[in-house]
Amino acid sequence: MKIYTKTGDTGETALFGGKRLPKSDIRIEAYGTVDELNSYVGLIRDNVADDNVRNLLKKIQDRLFTIGSHLATETGESPYVPKIKDEDITALEQAMDDMDSHLPQLRNFILPGGHTTVSFCHITRCVCRRAERRVVALHTDTPVAPELIRYLNRLSDYLFVLARKLSQDLDAEEVVWEGKV
For residue 107, is it left (φ>0), alpha (ψ between -120 and 50) or beta? Predict the structure, then answer.
């Protein structure tokens, strides 16, 4: 099977089900940004040694594929794709609570950086926020399952807490934003 189909050469692509849309359509932008997010999560996973974190990141990648699949379906839902469930969101919250219990209390904004892996987390968090904005924009025109938006919102929080935890684990400096120089 060839990977190239040439069907997108005119600037259109097909959703699951066959409907064709311009590649600039907000639906395509939304699931394309989720795909980009998934790639960045993989980059973090490749740079983290902790097996528990790596396993959760792999589950997150699976959930992002699920979200992308729903977004790539004209109706927004497919009987062939699993749903994002409350338990998926709860898993992120529990992971954040666990990491937070080992971190100093956050009293200031944190500047991204300190270690390459921490920076990857912050970049991924920003891409996650963009994906969330694209999905919310789609939702203004076409209903999107609310749990997809909730998952992306919670995931960006998780990525922030993960960046803080990795800073601690890697003995990297967490630089506080001063507000003035």
Answer: alpha
Residue pLDDT, tens place only, 125-150: 999 999 999 999 999 999 999 999 99
Three-state DSSP state, 39: helix
Range of the domain at 132: 42-99+109-169
- The whole-angstrom separation of Cα 124 and Cα 130 is 10
Report the CATH number that the domain containing residue 161 is assigned in CATH: 1.20.1200.10
8 assigned to some structural domain: no
- DSSP letter string over 78-136? -TTSPPP-HHHHHHHHHHHHHHHTTSPPP-S-B-S-SSHHHHHHHHHHHHHHHHHHHHH
Strand partners, 14: 20
Instruction: Name the pTM for this structure.
Output: 0.92
What's the pLDDT tens digit per position in 103-128? 999 888 999 999 999 999 999 999 99
